[in-house]
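Forum: Protein Structure Q&A
Topic: Joint prediction for protein chains with partners

I've read a bunch of threads here and the consensus seems to be that you should model interacting components together rather than docking separate models afterwards. I'd like to see that in practice. Below is the full input, 878 residues plus whatever partners are listed. Could one of the regulars post the assembled result?
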Amino acid sequence: MPVNDIVIRIAGESGEGIVTIGEVFVRIAAFSGLEVYTFRTFPAEILGGHVIFQARIADRPVLSQGDNINVLVSLNQEGYDAHVSELEAGGVVIYDDAVVTPRGSDRHQLYPVPVSQIANRLNFPRGSNLVMLGAMVQLMGLPIERAEQVVRRRLGRYAELLPKNLEALTAGYHYTQERFPSRPPTHLVPPEQIAEEKLVLTGYQAIALGALAAGCRFFAGYPITPATDLMEFMANELPKAGGTVVQAEDEIAAINMVIGASFAGLPSMTATSGPGLSLMIEAIGLASMAEIPVVVVDVQRAGPATGMPTKTAQGDLYMAFYAGADEAPRFVIAPSSVEDCFYQTINAFNMAELYQMPAIILSDQALAPRVETCTFFDLENIRLWKRHLAELKPGQPFERYKITHSGVSPITIPGTPGGQYVAEGLEHDEQGHPDYSPEMHRLMTKKRWNKVNAARHHVFGLENAVEEWGDQDAAIGILGWGSALGPVKEAMVRAQAAGYRVAALFPKILFPMPDVRIRRFIRGRRILIIPELNSLGQFARVIEHRYTRQLVQDSIRVISLNKYEGLPFRPVEIFEEIKRVSELLTRRTWPR
Amino acid sequence: MAVITLDHPVPIKDLKSDVKPIWCPGCGDYGVMHAVLKAISELQLDPAHVVIASGIGCSGRFPAFVKTYGFHGVHGRALPLATGVKIANPDLTVLAVSGDGDGLSIGAGHLPHAARRNVDITYLVLDNEVYGLTKGQPSPTSSWGMKTKASPYGTVERPLNPVAMMLACGTTFVARGFSARPQELAEIIKQGILHPGFAFIEIISPCVTFLDTYAFYKQHVVSIPETHDRTDRMAALALAFDTEQIHLGIFYQDPDSRPHHAALDEIRQKFSGGYSFKSLLERFRR
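Posted by a regular:
Agreed with the consensus. Here's the joint model:
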């Protein structure tokens, strides 16, 4: 029976209710000093349909949504029937016994709570969710004082309902306290003292905060699941910082507005998902050609066309790397946790601004809305890189696209006397005048790529550009990107305990690729496992292509571990692969 | 609406860049460029505080020939580009330049929204009723039955009426000019720049190479009579739908126009008490 590392799933019918109970419950846990990690999936429709909210809660940092469910909270029969098969033997079911009949579940421990009846008795039929929340708090071992505090904070905007909500909460708490004198064996034990400073927030909030910290003052976007939350957060916060949010008429307008605002001097950003990114590709090419800094967040979702808007994937890597007419250099950055979202967004702005280029951040549907506890952001050590402004010399023409060693040409901002130039989407000379000559196209193409190379040398001095851990001398290496990091880390802890040796490396800045670090990591390995949520193994193909010679010379085999079900990796899936490959290695002689 | 002005006009010749226009001799766009420069000069605008955004087509080359700031973007996106510029720095005078292909075909989706926002941009649509840069295909304003290489049996689409369309979108300033009447055109452009909001100006700018309409327009254009009440949108629509004559001048201007950036300012002023990133972060502290 797990204590202090539990996975709780709330299943029911209506949209908002489930998510509200879930979001409030994890915050009660977090504010009680525990670590949280949420996972939610829901139909694109706002109400109706089947919704789940799942949280893993533990007394140590949580890196994935876990493998099994330990506690199932069912608010209707469908929520019970659809999920009970995933509940572990001996797991806990908390349910409304007025509407749910737990058929044939002698494998589970049952905690019936007549939530609608209690709510009706309080003359507050809408409060049944709060009654359930109170019951969950009591049964799971969380303090009622914290619960009241969080409910006040989260639901305080409905001031007239607050006393009723608190009454419903405590009624649920007291009911279970009396009816079930002892707690379920599966429960939580919050620490006595909360020592460390922590933040509780979602992935999109961390990106938005990173953008604000990096000086972003203009945001334009178009609603698209699952990136809309980011726009809404910015709409609330950016005006307070003197900035502006525009809901554009489409993604094409959004990215072009962002380019215009950046040209006029403001660090600027847009956020979208795969279908929107595909609409923005032409203009990302323009930002690359005209050398205008922009940051584009892609919250990846599953499937081409409309696909599965509420399901996750890592399938936009090729698009982020390569899409567009001819060759348009850009940066691609993939944060791997909520905390990392903050720092990588600052990296994206820094790189875009300094090198005057588009930077694409690859988040995903599992990472963006997820609530995690993370270490309080280290604001003291944030360094912002700005675009280099030109020093104008009277009588000399301003060379906006001057060819320099690094490829970076000093820029002017409209309003600067004597700095007039045309940001040009046509091939151009150093002054920005259209020029189609063979030598100019060669020189300018090289100049634009030189910036990528300069950035490659520059950013890999950054401590957070890659994350490397594990057994340095292991024959098996896991190379991955983005939000696959958490499940990999957990799987490796288990693998180590089981006696398997593995090393891992996750680059956060994917374009330019951190060649030195990757070559060093690959050296001496026999197998590279590359786990990603797409069917082609896009990152694996990039790695194979880029490091062919080393992989062939050293007989290193690349194994793609692909999952394309719209769901994130579970640690057990990574662990099983480590186990399989380790056993292969011991049984067979691999060609050297 | 011009904000930053000089105490003297910059002469027109000093507003021209050293890039030689690529337009064909006789192209209407020369007349438009002259009118724009005349307007900038006479309004005593500081060229360092003027931005001209353009898309693709013969009109797209416009910024390269002028000594203001410029942005030559991708096809059809002059308006969102210009919108971003104006929001980022409302002190700039922002013009957007398109043709009938850039503005009324690929970029037409942005028109109602620029009108809806009433973003303070002067939008010049250089209408020659044909695709010039790609050598003579029909455009959204080509007349019914026009034969081109891409419509060898004649077009089967009816032409748009850009002025009527923009009046219907609620645009706060709608006008039409003619490149062969640069004095009148410069006056219209000046009024458009001074208008605090979205100013839409359709400019008849004939293509001498693929569709020379000079003779036709010289015969059919007529200035809007002084008796026209330009605050009357319905009267403006009646002029726009006139099938006998093609009217030139300001069809409609909303005297109470309030630009987009003023509304944005009002929202920001609610939070003028100082901004602190650290206190925002505190909201997420456990």
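The longest strand of chain B covers residues 246-253.
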